[in-house]
Amino acid sequence: MKNIAVIGTGYVGLVTGTCFAETGNNVTCVDIDANKVERMKGGEVPIYEPHLDVLFERNIKQERLKFTTELAPAIEDAEIIFLALPTPPGEDGSADLSYVLGVAKDLGKIIKEFKVIVDKSTVPVGTADQVSAAIREETDIPFAVVSNPEFLREGFAVDDFMNPDRVVIGTEDEKAKTIMNELYQPFIRDGHPLIFMDEKSAELTKYAANSFLATKITFMNEVANFCEIVGADVDRVREGMGADTRIGHRFLYPGIGFGGSCFPKDVSALMKSGNDHNFNFSIIDAVLNVNNQQRIKLLDKVLDHFGDIEGKKFALWGLAFKPDTDDIREAPALYLVDELTKRGATITAFDPEAIDNVKNVIGDKIEYAKNQYEVLDGADALLIATEWSVFKNPDFNEIKSRLKSPIIFDGRNIFNLNDIREKGVFYSSIGRQTIIPKV
Ligand SMILES: NC(=O)C1=CN([C@@H]2O[C@H](COP(=O)(O)OP(=O)(O)OC[C@H]3O[C@@H](n4cnc5c(N)ncnc54)[C@H](O)[C@@H]3O)[C@@H](O)[C@H]2O)C=CC1
Ligand SMILES: O=C(O)[C@H]1O[C@H](OP(=O)(O)OP(=O)(O)OC[C@H]2O[C@@H](n3ccc(=O)[nH]c3=O)[C@H](O)[C@@H]2O)[C@H](O)[C@@H](O)[C@@H]1O
């Protein structure tokens, strides 16, 4: 059992804190958002993340998980302090370290004994040194700074955290190594490795992993675009490639580009890190360019089909950047909304979880429906931007009777081409043949 403080209770901090409590530790989570802290104290999970609620409730009830806005009392007894703070992109694409370094400075002012300060935020190479320097400016008390990047995916966060493929720990401090090794034992029982390395290598591992996955997706998006030109089927190509164990089946799904709070920002930040060292990450540059185009791929298809879309009405399924989350940061759906509305189209959208978040950002720029069929009424076409399970087996009679004409543009390839042939709809997807209904 360890006493732990987690600073920042977003997707990463809240999952980290809850899962460490679940493995028997005493965890105090700190956030500057007083409203959020009050809601959590009242037992409310402030984000939509499958399976988090059960662990959250259990650990609050058993008094292993607490919340506060006060940094000093939260860290007083904590042996380990996790920083799970935002590192949003700055104007030039670099990671904004002001949250991390600001809290580091605050910690320097209040620590009274040795602490292990662990950076879980995604930060550029060299940040651990900057965190150490920020603390050292304020205190002579000994401490160790550890880089422990997080690899969880939203929507699978609890499972990813409890059963990680690997845990990366960057530190050369022997005491910190022992403490981190003890802390993570419950998570690596099934043989997944705890990989120790220096701080810089750990920091770069995180960016390299995210950028590699973003590159894999982008490569497939380009293959899909080429499939459309030459009449190949990207589903078959994906199966054929993925069966090679050196390639693997995962992260080969083409679509309307990667979004989310991490891939776009981390790929840009790695590019910027390279620039800072006069190093040109040319692959990363290409990934960013291709992804920017891919995000509005459905727009190209819609314009090809309709020509002018001024006054057209579109139904949109999916707003979240991927299924099983209410997160809309860098969601391709929102880029699409922007481009369509700019050209005079109107949109009614449905998403199972993300509507409230979208309303907070774009308000009444579009209309919202309470279910996936209501959005269809009188629309010129249905556009699919997120592959929520509830969209995958719909009532096609409802779709056909409610739309003005049965036209579907699918940015996530959620339907099997053989099945859709029987449905009597025009169906255009990514990297596959367009299905035109027989008249
Ligand atoms: N979202 C994800 O799936 C993953 C995110 N990461 C990285 O983890 C870091 C955090 O990301 P998210 O959890 O998504 O961020 P988030 O934006 O969801 O949450 C950050 C939290 O920190 C709080 N905060 C801001 N300043 C604070 C301060 N001075 N003291 C206490 N709390 C403060 C905010 O109120 C917010 O609740 C980022 O570096 C991100 O790149 C890494 C892996 C996965
Ligand atoms: O650093 C982070 O924040 C996290 O970023 C991603 O996780 P996440 O953004 O939650 O979601 P992913 O499932 O990776 O999807 C990212 C984007 O890629 C897209 N994607 C994913 C897979 C695929 O085959 N095709 C594809 O277009 C998704 O639609 C989504 O827009 C990584 O998968 C996590 O390992 C990492 O910890």
The amount of beta strand, in percent, is 5-15%
Bound molecules: 1,4-dihydronicotinamide adenine dinucleotide, uridine-5'-diphosphate-glucuronic acid
Largest sheet: 6 strands, parallel
Given helix and strand content, the structural type is alpha/beta
Question: Radius of gyration over alpha carbons?
Answer: 24 Å
Q: In the CATH classification, which architecture of the largest domain applies?
A: 3-Layer(aba) Sandwich
Helix proportion of residues, in percent? 40-55%
Family: Belongs to the UDP-glucose/GDP-mannose dehydrogenase family.
Binding site for NAD(+): 31, 36, 87, 122, 154, 265, 329
Pathway: Nucleotide-sugar biosynthesis; UDP-alpha-D-glucuronate biosynthesis; UDP-alpha-D-glucuronate from UDP-alpha-D-glucose: step 1/1
Pfam families: UDPG_MGDP_dh, UDPG_MGDP_dh_C, UDPG_MGDP_dh_N
Kindly describe this structure.
The protein is an alpha/beta fold and 439 residues long. It folds into 3 domains: 3-197, Rossmann fold (3-Layer(aba) Sandwich), CATH 3.40.50; 207-293, N-(1-d-carboxylethyl)-l-norvaline Dehydrogenase, domain 2, CATH 1.10.1040.10; 295-428, NAD(P)-binding Rossmann-like Domain (Rossmann fold, 3-Layer(aba) Sandwich). Helix content is 42%, strand content 13%. It contains 17 helices and 14 strands. The protein has helices at residues 11-22, 34-41, 52-61, 71-76, 98-110, 127-136, 157-162, 174-184, 199-230, 234-242, 263-276, 282-294, 297-306, 332-342, 355-362, 396-402, 417-421; strands at 3-7, 26-30, 65-68, 80-83, 115-119, 143-147, 167-170, 194-197, 313-317, 346-350, 367-368, 381-384, 407-410, 426-428. The chain has a 6-stranded parallel β-sheet with strand order 3-2-1-4-5-6, with helices on both faces. The chain has a 6-stranded parallel β-sheet with strand order 11-10-9-12-13-14, covered by helices on one side. Helix 5 runs parallel beside helix 6 and helix 11 packs antiparallel against helix 12. The longest helix has 32 residues, at 199-230. The protein is elongated and about 80 Å long. The model has no long low-confidence stretch (mean pLDDT 96). The structure holds 1,4-dihydronicotinamide adenine dinucleotide (NAI) and uridine-5'-diphosphate-glucuronic acid (UGA). 1,4-dihydronicotinamide adenine dinucleotide binds next to helix 1 and helix 5. Pathway: Nucleotide-sugar biosynthesis; UDP-alpha-D-glucuronate biosynthesis; UDP-alpha-D-glucuronate from UDP-alpha-D-glucose: step 1/1. Keywords: NAD, Oxidoreductase. Belongs to the UDP-glucose/GDP-mannose dehydrogenase family. The active site is at residue 262. Pfam families: UDPG_MGDP_dh, UDPG_MGDP_dh_C, UDPG_MGDP_dh_N.
